[in-house]
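Q: 1-deoxypentalenic acid 11-beta-hydroxylase, please. Structure only.
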Amino acid sequence: MLDTPITTDDIAAFHRDGFIVIPHLFDTEEIDLLGKIARADQLMAANASGRRDGEGGTVKLAISNELEEDIYAAFVRCPRLAGTMEQLLGGEVYHYHHKMILKEPLIGGAWEWHQDYGYWYNNGCLFPDMASCMVAVDRSTQANGCLQVLRGSHLMGRVNHITVGDQTGADPERVAVALERLELVYVELEPGSAVFFHSNLLHRSDQNKSVDPRWTLIACYNMARNDPYKESHHPRYSPLERWPEERIKELGQAQWEKIRSEV
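A: Structure for 1-deoxypentalenic acid 11-beta-hydroxylase:
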């Protein structure tokens, strides 16, 4: 668990590389609760959608713009995520949305190379002053399709995106050149570890051809000063209420007991 704020070196690395990894940001109990609740969450399962990857696979994900009184909101609102994000971006942030990526064994699809701002630009966000944090629920490895990033690619600026399958991917010509010039990093994570990454960082993942699932929680934040100038399917600015760290276990335990009682 993160006991102290991130350092100036961490912030410098984020701006230089476009991402930082924080091992064991959440403890075993917190991640076990998140994993058990997510896998038993029938509403999330009903709202999950599939995205074809252009390689014959499909990625399942469940996206939410709303924060309820639940464990997902406790993660999004906690200082370890929201507070760290404000340090990295240099100002107030708000919840843009969050999602669970459900990459199942043997059938979980790939994500094409893309930048998140490649999508979010069209939502009325003038600047790429946005970032995401991916928290590993399961162990994330090359075998089960972990996140891949191109170190420093956020400095390229926004790249044009085109449709690939059901996904929107970055211009293949520019990606090919970026792959020649920039370091490809496989971001392998233990459960509870997290990677914070800039909205212009080029990233992707392979299909999961292993027998191990790769579920992750991704919390996406926009800066308050970057409030979109038009309505879209993701929210405009509203203040993000911060919850104390202990709410994760408190809400998680209550939510899990409720689920068990309904079975």
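A: Brief note, in case it's useful. The chain is about 30% helix and 25% strand.
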